Amino acid sequence: MIAGLILAAGESSRMGTDKALLLYRGRTFLEHILATLHNAGIEQLTVVLGHHADEIQLAAKLTGTEVVVNQDYRRGQTSSLQAGLRALDRPAIQAVVLCLVDHPAVSTEVIRKLVAAFEQSAAPVVIPTYQGQRGHPALISRALFAELMALSLSEGANTVVRKYCDSTHFVEVDDPGVLIDVDDPESFRRLNG
């Protein structure tokens, strides 16, 4: 089974408001990403919250989603990744599609292509590219979970992912959404422009 893991615990300081609750195509970023994963056939959905976790749970429809609250979210994204992986540490989970809440514009088709590429290649990492540029989300095999769990909080997941560059499967997609990172009010205006 491949799970969806969405990291949405940060303070959204550059945005000035919780990115998880920003609207995109009539839904919050968080709801949109969950729907995209679900529509791609990902049934196990886990979201990691931290900053304003209670408010986000009240405002967003998270039915059928496992919610993990990372009390250490101020210690950075790696702490949230590790909290999510701990929750997904079950033998049935073969890999996770690792989504960041500030990348809401990825299509269902991209998720399907990543899953298909993983099932065919069993690569440790599957990453979408658009016109040769690496994008998000990344699909990460269970084979890397222990290394990700062993990271110090000052290291990012890329520390592990880069080690497997030679065996990473890159999937070229026709979706510029894999490159869209909404980090500040200007990028949010562009997204909805």
What report would you give on this structure?
With 193 residues, the protein is α/β, with parallel strands linked by helices. It has helices spanning 29-39, 53-59, 77-87, 108-121, 145-149, 158-163, 185-191, and strands at 2-8, 23-24, 27-28, 44-49, 66-69, 95-100, 125-130, 133-134, 138-141, 169-172. The chain is 32% helix and 22% strand. A hairpin with a 2-residue loop joins strand 7 and strand 8 (133-134). The mean pLDDT is 92.
Key structural traits:
two-stranded antiparallel ribbon, 193 residues, 8-stranded mixed sheet, 32% helix, alpha/beta, 7 helices
How would you summarize the topology of this molecule?
Blueprint: E1 2-8, E2 23-24, E3 27-28, H1 29-39, E4 44-49, H2 53-59, E5 66-69, H3 77-87, E6 95-100, H4 108-121, E7 125-130, E8 133-134, E9 138-141, H5 145-149, H6 158-163, E10 169-172, H7 185-191
